[in-house]
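Example record for the data management plan.
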Amino acid sequence: MEPNQNIKIALETMSGKGSELGINFLQLQTIIRGVKYSHLVGVCWDTCHLNDAGYDLVNNLEQVIEEFDKIIGLDKLFVIHLNDSKNIKGSHKDRHENIGYGNLGFDSLCSILYHPKFVNIIKILETPWNNSEPPYKEEIIMFKNKQFNNFLNR
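Corresponding structural encoding:
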């Protein structure tokens, strides 16, 4: 890295499924502080990974945001991967699910997408594609309309 570059790197939150690092905000803070040009390093929230790591995005989103801000700082949140989780909170498994079909649920993910503190943060759909048609168009429509529709007919 060069000191005058403007390229930034986002460390993705991890679910804790093995020997990985970055499972909680303190680990991410330690990694960021250990980088020579730490002003260029931030975090990518993966909603499935946060859930599977034990963060309660469904019932305590504001507390999770507050904890992240105190430990790392919201200015270090560069991007959010939006996806649901096939697993319960704290399962440490990392199994992504389509929007609204998992344990986070549509309303919780919609709250993250439209949260006032996340207005200028990049959001990326990162949901499974198992059928002949990708789900992304329908998921985007649901988010735009702020209403879940059972497009996968599950």
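Summary line stored alongside the record: The chain has one domain: 9-145.
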